[in-house]
Structure formats: C-alpha cells, structure tokens
C-alpha cells in the first residue's frame, strides 16, 4: 500500500502531527502535503491541474469542519476538476464527526470515496488502498 502523493487537509494541528507520524512511519507515501486550510489546498490543486503536474494527489484526506472553507465547500469546487484528473484521485472525508447526516451527505458526492472517522490507524490506511476510485 503506497500512494504517490497524499494531501491531508485538516485544521487540527495535533491531529495533523499524529497522522503525519503514522503516515511516515508506515511509509504510505514519500510525498505528503499537509494543509490547515481547505482553500489553500484547493489553490494548490488548481495550480497542479493547470501545469498538468504529476504531483496531483492520488489520495486526499479531508476534514469537514474548518475555517474559511469547510470540507463540503471544498468538495463542491473539487468536483469541477476535469474527469481525467478526478479519476486518478481518491478523496475521503476524514472527520471526528459522528453525525449520521455528515456520513449520509458524504455519500451524495460522486467524488467522495468514503467517510473515515478519526483517529487515523494503520488498518484504516490499509482499507483506503483497497477502495476503488469512485469518479
């Protein structure tokens, strides 16, 4: 199980620290980028699409509740990317929310591969690799 490029988008710095350590310890990817704000991650993704960069992530872990742009707003913009780009990327909601409405809402988006509850574990990472790209 290895991803070429992984984006972790979450405003919780403690969670990011722990998740980064887990990802690095298990060598899930050599190219991990962590963003505290979804709008900044979205700007970077747009640049990667414009330049047809091979650094476009093949996995995105996205929190829901964040300032400036929440996860749902991010998804609304993300799903506008070209199908050729989306077909290479798995996007998972990665949240501490246990609200059934959030889980159900995540299923309404074609670009969302699934909903993962925090905390991140190696078993959850292994399951990500098994999930097919939904786009």
Write up this protein.
- Helix content is 41%, strand content 18%.
- It is globular and about 35 Å long.
- The mean pLDDT is 92.
- The chain is α/β, with parallel strands linked by helices.
- The two termini are 20 Å apart.
- The protein contains six helices and five strands, in the order E-H-E-H-E-H-H-E-H-E-H.
- It has helices at residues 13-25, 38-50, 71-78, 83-86, 100-107, 122-130, and strands spanning 6-9, 32-35, 59-62, 90-95, 112-117.
- The chain has a five-stranded parallel sheet.
Write the layout of secondary structure elements.
Layout: E1 6-9, H1 13-25, E2 32-35, H2 38-50, E3 59-62, H3 71-78, H4 83-86, E4 90-95, H5 100-107, E5 112-117, H6 122-130
Parallel strand pairs: 1-2, 1-3, 3-4, 4-5
């Amino acid at each position: 199980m290895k991803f070429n490029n992984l984006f972790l988008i979450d405003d919780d710095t403690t969670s990011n620290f722990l998740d980064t350590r887990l990802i690095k310890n298990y060598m899930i990817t050599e190219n991990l980028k962590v963003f505290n704000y979804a709008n900044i991650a979205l700007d970077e993704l747009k640049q990667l699409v414009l330049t047809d960069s091979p650094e476009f992530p093949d996995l995105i872990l996205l929190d829901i509740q964040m300032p400036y742009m929440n996860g749902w707003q991010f998804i609304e913009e993300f799903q506008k990317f070209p199908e050729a780009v989306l077909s290479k990327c798995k996007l998972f909601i990665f949240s501490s929310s246990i609200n059934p409405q959030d889980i159900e809402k995540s299923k309404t988006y074609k670009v969302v591969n699934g909903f993962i509850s925090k905390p991140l574990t190696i078993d959850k990472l292994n399951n990500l690799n098994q999930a097919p790209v939904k786009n």
